[in-house]
Amino acid sequence: MKVVGRAMSTIGDRMLIIQCDAAQLPPLYSEVTDRKMQPVGKILDLFGNIKAPYAAVLCKGKCTVQPNEKLFTK
Asked: 17 pLDDT band (50/70/90 cuts)?
């Protein structure tokens, strides 16, 4: 299990913005899970500064992730 980053905010019902760790950038379209290994969604885009990147995640359903919660990939 690799840490993707921390949830920052949601856009609408199904889009989630995550602040990533620059040393452990996840690949595009990888599955994102919460700490209980429940699927959250897929990474659609990586953007922002090289030292402080962000990821846009399309959630499978209504996005219920709390701000500042850690998210993971397999």
From this structure: very high
